[in-house]
Structures are given as C-alpha cells and as structure tokens.
C-alpha cells in the first residue's frame, strides 16, 4: 500500500510541474509552485511517518482494553500503566518526561506492555521510527567502552528528541547493564524546561529489568501461604521495598543510580510471577494469534509440562508465558 502511495506522490509532482510550465512563468510559477510544495508536503506526510498527530495519537481506551484482555495475571501493573500513561499523555504541560521502571521475572509481560503502549500511541506501533529500543547485552556489552557508550547514548537521546519530542526510549535488560551508564541520561529525565534548547518533557523512558523479581515473588508467595487472594496485592505492598532492593542491587544497572536517588523514576511497576491458570490464558490467546482454534486440552497438556516453582509448592511458572509460542508448535 505504501509503495502505491509513494508512486502516486512522484507522479503527482511530475504532473504538477507540467501544469506549472503550461502558464506564463513570471506571473504563475511562484504562486503555483508554493501550492505544489504545500500539497507535496501533505502527501509526503501521508506516506512517510512524521512527528505529528496523524502518526502519533494516544488511544486511552485502546490501551485500557488491551491491558484488560491481553495481559494476564498483572492487575497491579495493568492499573499503574493505564493511569500513568493516560495521565501523562493528557497533561498538556508535563514538568518532566514519563519514566517507568518495569520489574519481574522473565515472561511476565514487561516487553509486552511496552508493545501495547507503543501500539496505542504510534500508528506504526513498535515499528515506529520514534521508538528507540536498547538491549544492554547487545548495545553496551563491554565495560571498557562505558565512556564511549555514555557519549553515544547522550547524543542518540538528544538527537532523536530534537527530531521528535514525543519519542519513546526502551531500555531492556537493565539488570545486565553496567552500573553508572544509565546516569548519563539523568539530565534529560530531570525537571528542566529545556537543555541546550531541547525540551525532553514529552518523551517517555521505559526500563525493563528482572531485578527485584525475588522480592515480588516473595510477596506473592506470602499472600498465597496466608490464603489471601492474589488480586488483593496492591502497589504499596511492593513498590517501596522494590525500589530500595533495585537501588542496592550491585548487579543491576540501576545500582545507586541518581535516577532513583533524585526521585526521577515515576513508578516502579511490579510484574507478579504467573500461575498455572495464567499460563492457560496465555496458551489460548497464542493459539488464536496463530490462527488456530483454541483447544483447552492442548493448552492444558502444554501447561502441565512446564516447570513451576518453588519446588515444594510448584505455584509459579519458571518462564512465565515466554516459551508458550514455541511449546504450542510441538503440541499442535
């Protein structure tokens, strides 16, 4: 479809140039030329992604529905993400960028939530040129190069926010990032109106990490042992101790970071470990996504063969829903 529009754009420009040349040049070229240029820009913006409301428009209802129907077992995270993102996007004059730090074991939905936010903010979703994703082990692997990484990261953030203030930056594997590196972007997350003429207040920064997973799991396990409903767990049961444990985790990229010390992280969002019932929901959704008719027996067999912990109780899925797609290929 895009190729067709691009071809039309070229054709339109060529036809327009012929149209202009058909008139007396002195009296008409300037006026018609301006009109062609204006229309040409509109067609260009229609075909190519631009930093405007056609390509970037927040769908609060869409995000709420997606979180409710597609994210399983994460009532705390779902509520926090919906309120935080909606509140930020509805604020016409935010005092700082939105900074979210998502924590929990693998397969609990951290990357998936980033995708849902993107899909309900950018027309192109995760394919948007205004979303910038970093994976610590891929982009910042060598400790000896940390100073170079800092310089490159600062330039990348500044350049892309200059290009589009409504940019999103996702930092994955924060638990594997070299401590001290992320502090280089601290000025961009602070309460400055602008830095060197650039305002960062409309940007979104999301950190994804396994750090803090032990604490989150322990709280969920304690609720289970006490016979309390999992849905009774609230953000206040987790966030204070979570932020402290992440700050003091020497193996985390957020260890003693000024981002936490200066209270620049708006929310530490906990992702609870998933139970057997949540794995079943993931399996049924995955079958639908694959174009298959959801089969409870197939999903149940697949779910029973997964590894659960702790060893004695076997309550939580060791890999959450991360391996569901591949496992279903075997069972179907």
Automatic annotation (TrEMBL):
Domain of life from the UniProt record: Eukaryota
Main location: endoplasmic reticulum
GO biological process, alphabetically ordered: nuclear membrane organization; protein localization to nucleus
Binding-site residues for ATP, renumbered to this chain: 104-111
GO cellular component: endoplasmic reticulum lumen; nuclear envelope
Keyword Calcium: no
GO terms of molecular function: ATP binding; ATP hydrolysis activity; kinesin binding
Subcellular location(s) per record: Endoplasmic reticulum lumen
Keyword Glycoprotein: yes
Family (UniProt): Belongs to the ClpA/ClpB family. Torsin subfamily.
Name listed for the protein in its UniProt record: Torsin
